Write a sequence for this structure.
């Protein structure tokens, strides 16, 4: 049996924790990474274990929700944190932290989309 290797072009947003689509055990590495993005109780649901595409869909929803939460925290920090008696230096640091978190979550969202597309392509190509 002759096996040909095909190169799969992956996005720069592809998570380094996930093997290249089409490589040995790549779906398992994708599912493992996706499970880290959802609450633990979801990761143990049998439907999510059997269907990585379903897990990917939930991870997309979860990350989008986290982006909304971080944006709200960022947008309200300057008005709400002084009321809590926090020093200006802590408020400024917190604003930078929220801004960085929004950027990180946006990157994760792009990574989840890339993995989802690969999983959908793999499951429809069977």
């Amino acid at each position: 049996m002759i096996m040909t290797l095909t190169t799969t072009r992956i996005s720069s947003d592809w998570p380094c924790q996930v093997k290249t689509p089409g490589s040995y055990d790549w779906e398992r590495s994708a599912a493992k990474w996706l499970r880290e993005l959802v609450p633990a109780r979801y990761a143990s649901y049998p439907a999510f274990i059997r269907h990585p595409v379903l897990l990917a869909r939930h991870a997309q929803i979860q990350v989008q929700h986290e982006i909304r939460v971080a944006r709200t925290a960022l947008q309200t920090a300057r008005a709400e944190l002084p009321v809590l008696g926090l020093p200006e230096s802590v408020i400024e640091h917190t604003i930078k932290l929220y801004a960085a978190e929004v950027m990180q979550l946006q990157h994760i969202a792009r990574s989840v989309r890339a993995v989802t597309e690969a999983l959908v392509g793999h499951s429809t190509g069977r």
In short: The CA atoms of residues 67 and 102 lie 6 Å apart. The helical segments are 26-35, 40-43, 46-50, 52-80, 88-124.
